[in-house]
Amino acid sequence: MAPVPNSRLVFRELPSGLPDPSSVFELDATPTIDVNAVELDGGFLVRILSLSLDPYMRNRMRPADTEGDMPALPLGQVVTGFGVAQVVRSEHPSFPAGCHVGGFMPYQEYAIFRDSKEGADESAAMPALGITRLENRYNLPWRYFVGALGMTGQTAYYAFKDVSNPRPGETILISAAAGAVGLLAVQYALSLGLRVIATCGSDDKVAILRGLGVKHVLNRHTDDIAAELKRLGPIDIFLDLVGGPLLEAAIYNAAMNARFLICGSITTYNAPMSEAFGVRNLWLVNRYRITIRALVVIDWHDMYLAEFYSVVPKKIADGEIKVIEHICDNFEHAGQAFVNMLTGKSIGKSVIVLRDE
Ligand SMILES: NC(=O)c1ccc[n+]([C@@H]2O[C@H](COP(=O)([O-])OP(=O)(O)OC[C@H]3O[C@@H](n4cnc5c(N)ncnc54)[C@H](OP(=O)(O)O)[C@@H]3O)[C@@H](O)[C@H]2O)c1
Question: What's the CATH architecture for 4-147+324-353?
Answer without folding.
Answer: Alpha-Beta Complex (3.90)
